[in-house]
């Protein structure tokens, strides 16, 4: 009678352990599959290098996460104005004081303002008395640093141009070439050709510079040797991302679920549960 009473208990316990093993395996593998499918949309599995871990040769081709402030190896240089700034990207803006045609409802009026492109006054409804000078003698331009690294990995041009933020900087008048120093004066962080900067005249030029600030960034990109490049095969059509600060993967890609914790520990537990369940079933059948 004792053996008969043990049999259903052993069989029941064995079935419970086997079902627990199957459930744990299903939850773990399903979560891992969802995580891999989501990361594949952004270029593939992401290896977290953080701010200190160095890339290894066997990691080439993987998506990686790196954190740190960009290190400018060779600063951008505006040769025409002899201006150099320690920044990943330097942008020169050029504006001219011109006539603008302004429509407000049915009303039409003209005013002069700083505009960053030539305005063709011949197309105005009333061109007479509102003629603009035409093309700019100096053009706006962007200057990239020779090389920028984050956690010792060089940023490829697409990632370099995606760096966030901008700051106005003041040009150094001492560095201006003599011909430009004779034409421009410094006024509110701008170089202007106006004789009276507070009251510009038609055709006056205004030149200013913006930089991308050096700040802590989180960069996701594909590891290509010692460079970070976009994952061109990513389903999201981008294959990289850059955000200010130390950001986790889930912050940058909210559509990517968290991967299951301790995958291999879970798999080992599944094996132990399955083995224990099978042993109990065999013991119960013998009973």
UniProtKB/TrEMBL annotation:
<dbReference type="GO" id="GO:0071763">
    <property type="term" value="P:nuclear membrane organization"/>
</dbReference>
<feature type="transmembrane region" description="Helical">
    <location>
        <begin position="264"/>
        <end position="282"/>
    </location>
</feature>
<dbReference type="GO" id="GO:0012505">
    <property type="term" value="C:endomembrane system"/>
</dbReference>
<keyword id="KW-0256">Endoplasmic reticulum</keyword>
<keyword id="KW-0472">Membrane</keyword>
<dbReference type="GO" id="GO:0006629">
    <property type="term" value="P:lipid metabolic process"/>
</dbReference>
<keyword id="KW-1133">Transmembrane helix</keyword>
<dbReference type="InterPro" id="IPR012430">
    <property type="entry name" value="TMEM43_fam"/>
</dbReference>
<dbReference type="Pfam" id="PF07787">
    <property type="entry name" value="TMEM43"/>
</dbReference>
<protein>
    <submittedName>
        <fullName>Uncharacterized protein</fullName>
    </submittedName>
</protein>
<keyword id="KW-0812">Transmembrane</keyword>
